[in-house]
Amino acid sequence: MIRVSPEQLVDELQRKLTDNRIYVNVVLRNGRVEVSTGKVPTDVTGMSVDDAYKLIEQKMDMAAAQKK
User: Fold this and answer.
1) How many angstroms separate the CA atoms of 49 and 20, rounded?
2) Global pTM?
3) From the first residue on, what is the mean pLDDT of each consecutive set of 10 residues in the chain (68 residues)?
4) In a 3-state reduction of DSSP, which class is residue 49?
């Protein structure tokens, strides 16, 4: 697991999500990295890019399943 700075996590995670056609906002707010995944943002601060991506992907899959 490669840890990156919060700024780098925002950039790399947004790029990876967009490359995989997952369109959500990734923001740095008060030193925390947050991803807009529904009503409550998901905090991925301190995670690796891959771990954060997997978490967001799971949340998006669960949200899609609930809509069915």
Assistant:
1) 14
2) 0.85
3) 86 95 93 90 94 93 81
4) helix
Give residue limits of the domains in the chain. 6-67
Neighbours of 65 (CB within 10 A): 8
Q: What's the one-letter identity of residue 10?
A: V
Residue 29, CB-side half-sphere exposure with 13 Å CA sphere: 10
Partners of 29 in beta bridges: 32
- CA 12 to chain centroid: 10
Q: What are phi and psi of 22, to 5 degrees?
A: -110, 110
Contact 47, 9 (CB under 8 A): yes
Q: Which amino acid is at 34?
A: E
